[in-house]
From TrEMBL:
GO terms for molecular function: ATP binding; ATP hydrolysis activity. Residues 332-375 are annotated as: Disordered. SUPFAM superfamilies: P-loop containing nucleoside triphosphate hydrolases. Gene3D superfamilies: P-loop containing nucleotide triphosphate hydrolases (3.40.50.300). Keywords: ATP-binding, Nucleotide-binding, Transport. This is ATP-binding cassette domain-containing protein. Residues 24-257 form the ABC transporter domain.
Length: 375
């Protein structure tokens, strides 16, 4: 069963052109000119229930615009979209009861009142029965260790404390899908780890589907079985992180710790004839061998282990995901080679369509002014 079904989704914005100088400003007054910006270009993907999927891309790639369409804040310019069986910008009241949203840079809590009062207001917004609300709140408060924070005004919370409260707020109505836009931004490693563990548990125990945008690839490594990568509004990769690493990493590293480090020349001689293998000395006891995928690890390893070198430890180094992703971003979809290599969801011809925006505030992700209206 699909939680999210997106087909040929497009979002185009019209942005007013500003002409230069006083003359230009006067002309702008009488005849406005517009540029079209296509933030999301005919993307398609399906997310089954219970999956945790990472949605990544460089600044301006179109991640937030997609999330805003998926949560009903923006109306797509064209394409088909179903989330939890609903078209998000239609049937909004029923739709928002099934989703939770956390925008890392935007709060859904009321700044000047106590955390518990914000939770109570959200209970009313989502019409959660009091007994159910109490049970759920107790469970979430215990898991995220929020007991002491409940009576504090939100403005007095640290960023890490606020993010934990935001997560509770997004889950009070027991949504089956959780949208997280940069949930760990600016947090220290302890809080990040705590939040990742919490999300894993929620997913495991309640089967909550999670779509997560982040610039922190550790979030993806810790949580996501699947990653969708966007570049300039198009999907350039949709698959597992392991496959991404396997396809894009150029080689592997083996680090050797020696009782006594052999000279670099000797190490190089050991792997002579293995094309592309290089050695670097890391410190007085360790050296690292880099080998391209074409060279068999066991062949290279046998050469060193079979020598008289005094080896104390061997580590096969993990492929560095950050580097791989940085490299893919820098080649980008502009390079057709990179796009061809990675693309599973193709883009299609651009059409000129005017912008449509719902103008309605989503209850789950309302801005502060919007919340003022709701309350
Ligand atoms: N309301 C808007 N009006 C005009 N252009 C917009 C609007 N919202 C987004 N854009 C443009 O659409 C493109 C995609 O923006 P979006 O915020 O979706 O990117 P993003 O991947 O979320 O970036 P970031 O990681 O910086 O948040 C950008 O060029 C942005 O300037």
């Amino acid at each position: 069963m699909l939680a999210i079904d997106v087909r040929d989704l497009r979002k185009q914005f019209q942005v007013q052109k500003n002409r230069v100088g006083v003359g230009g400003a006067l002309k702008d007054l009488f005849k406005r000119e517009y540029n079209d910006i296509t933030a999301v270009k005919d993307i398609s993907f399906q997310i089954p229930k219970g999956e945790i999927c990472g949605y990544i891309g460089e600044n301006g790639a179109g991640k937030s615009t997609t999330i805003k369409m998926l949560t009903g804040i923006l109306v797509p310019t064209s394409g088909h979209l179903q989330v939890n069986g609903f078209v998000p910008y239609k049937e909004r009241e029923k739709f928002v009861r099934g989703i939770g949203v956390v925008f890392g840079q935007r709060s859904q809590l009321w700044w000047d009142i106590g955390v518990i009062e914000s939770f109570q207001l959200l209970r009313k917004v989502y019409r959660v029965p009091e007994a159910e609300f109490r049970n759920r709140l107790n469970e979430l408060v215990e898991r995220l260790d929020l007991g002491e924070l409940l009576n504090r005004p939100v403005r007095k919370l640290s960023l890490g404390q606020r993010m934990r409260c935001e997560l509770v707020a997004s889950l009070l109505h027991n949504p089956s899908i959780l949208f997280l836009d940069e949930p760990t931004i600016g947090l220290d490693i302890v809080v990040k780890t705590e939040i990742r563990e919490f999300l894993k548990k929620i997913n495991r125990e309640h089967g909550t589907t999670i779509l997560l945008t982040t610039h922190d690839l550790q979030d993806i490594e810790a949580l996501c079985s699947r990653v969708i990568m966007l570049d300039d509004g198009r999907i350039i990769y949709d698959g597992s992180l392991d496959e991404l690493k396997a396809r894009w990493s150029k080689g592997r590293e083996l680090q050797f710790q020696f009782g006594e480090l052999p000279p670099l020349d000797v190490l190089k001689q050991l792997t002579q004839g293995l094309d592309g293998v290089t050695w670097t000395v890391d410190n007085e006891l360790t050296a690292t061998m880099w080998l391209p995928h074409e060279v068999n690890v066991s062949d290279a390893l046998a050469r060193v282990v079979g020598s008289r070198a005094d080896i104390r430890d061997i580590k096969i180094m993990e492929t560095n995901t950050d580097e791989i992703v940085r490299e893919i971003y820098s080649s980008g979809s502009a390079s057709s080679e990179a796009a061809d290599k990675l693309s599973q969801s193709s883009s299609s011809t651009e059409q000129a369509v005017s912008e449509t925006e719902s103008g309605q505030a989503t209850v789950a992700a309302a801005s502060d002014e919007e919340k003022g209206q709701q309350s």
